[in-house]
Amino acid sequence: MLRSPVIRMLGGMSETPLAFMFVTFVVFVVFFVVDLFVIGRKPHVPSTRECVQHIAFFVAAALIFGVCVWFVAGAKPAVEFYSGWLTEYSLSIDNLFVFVIIMSNFAVPKQLQKYVLSVGITVALILRGLFILVGAAIISRFTWVFFLFGAFLIYTAVKLVLGGGDDDEEYHENALIHALRKVVKVTDSYDGERLRTTIGGARYWTPMLIVFLTIGTTDVMFAFDSIPAIFGLTRDPFIVFSANVFALLGLQQLYFLLGALLDKLVYLPAGLSVVLGFIGVKLIMEALHGNSLPFINGGQPIEQVPEIPTWLSLVVIVVAIGGAALASVIAMRRVESSSKEE
Description:
By secondary structure, this protein is mainly alpha-helical. Helix content is 71%, strand content 2%. It is built from 12 helices and 2 strands. Strands 1-2 form a two-stranded antiparallel sheet. The N and C termini lie far apart (69 Å).
């Protein structure tokens, strides 16, 4: 009964058949159950080979999923998915900086970090799902919210260019975690994967609880950038959520593979700023094209404002992120060459 309004809303806002959406959600749930309760019960530090294999699998799965969307819903939703997936994936890579700091701050044992990421990402997806549903409902009723989303993304893009993200070098607990510490008893040491442990006959929560909630809620803070960005590419909540799932699926493997190299991706913020700035402008143009605010053009849409096609958004995203990655690799090799010469 509780799910029927959600299903009706998705069906009304999505070009994708309900049967395909249902199968997709079932596959997502099965995957996360297996990841948490089968693979997650074998704590280990993934090897480089394992990480590369998993990342290749998830990238291939996303590409195949896009093809499936193309067949069942058409070219436009498929291109929107690819654009959203690349944007979310790029922004998720930026999240890894904070994840590294969180793991270090809470002294999470190396062999437990994969499991922690799996649970944290699952929590984040549940919270993002709620965020997406709320966002979709708001956008469907108040198109002027695109003005706010667009302005926020442009502000974020400028902040990235000016180096505003440098304050993430030190982690600060958010209000939820700070309040939780005041009402529950938490030990200083871990007890494997357990959330609860017994010390001197008394029951305590382990730091694992705090870490799970920290990663999940911190990711939602990042969603304030990424969710408006993808809504600038598509208004389909199913495509938005699917892109988020595929972007986060390979994140834990990227964490282990790129953890030591994140600080060398020097041009990634520049690439992300171009993407966010472009989508911000696109959102404002869409808001003007469907304007209903009385103090702008008398409350009438501005038909002269051009519409940016989805394929152009995909091209901009690929060029910006690909160019930033390539420039970072070239810069890294130059530094390595200079070091060898010295």
